[in-house]
Design goal:
Strand content: under 5%
CATH architecture: Orthogonal Bundle
Structural class: mainly alpha
Number of strands: 2
Shape: globular
Radius of gyration: 15 Å
Largest sheet: 2 strands, antiparallel
């Protein structure tokens, strides 16, 4: 109950103060955003990537903010223009914005599959998948640095927690 109240306060009243806070509960995030559950289900069904993994990556990248940006990286998934264009061409979902949650959820699932095909990373290996997501193919092949590995471990842990939460709320 406390987490739900805190989430509502952060969402409605203290958005500027909570803007960089990571989501505490995946079920609360989905309840607060109509249609996101359907978007996650569509991505998990199409790409066979867990909803918790998709949510953990979007949480890490943008804190679920549609307008998040860091240089050329934009939207929920913080995709680069080049990688987003590659995704749109190969997925054939049409001209979608990086600030579209459904498209971003599809992007994360698609990216996991692209890295599985290029690098042989298991779809369930969130830690290695996120390392490839952050560093790209070349950076992943070089192994990354300690800070990159520390972040990937946190994302993998959050993905597992989100998956447990989602199973508890009937996702």
């Amino acid at each position: 109950m406390f987490k739900k109240i805190a989430f509502i306060i952060c969402t409605l009243l203290l958005t500027p103060l909570c803007a960089n806070a990571q989501a505490a509960n995946a079920c609360n995030v989905l309840k607060a955003h109509e249609g996101w559950d359907d978007a996650l289900k569509a991505s998990t069904q199409k790409y066979h990537v867990s909803a918790g993994a998709i949510m953990a990556i979007i949480d890490q990248e943008s804190r679920f903010k549609a307008n998040a940006h860091n240089g050329p990286y934009l939207g929920y998934a913080q995709a680069s223009p080049q990688t987003w264009a590659w995704f749109l061409r190969s997925s054939k979902i049409g001209a979608k914005s990086r600030s579209d949650f459904a498209a971003s959820a599809m992007f994360v699932g698609w990216h996991f599959n692209a890295m599985h095909d290029k690098l042989g990373i298991s779809l369930s290996n969130v830690k290695s998948q996120y390392l490839a997501y952050k560093l790209g193919v070349g950076g992943y092949m070089k192994g990354g640095n300690k800070s990159a590995h520390a972040i990937t471990a946190k994302v993998a842990k959050r993905a597992a927690a989100f998956n447990l939460q989602l199973s508890d709320c009937g996702f």
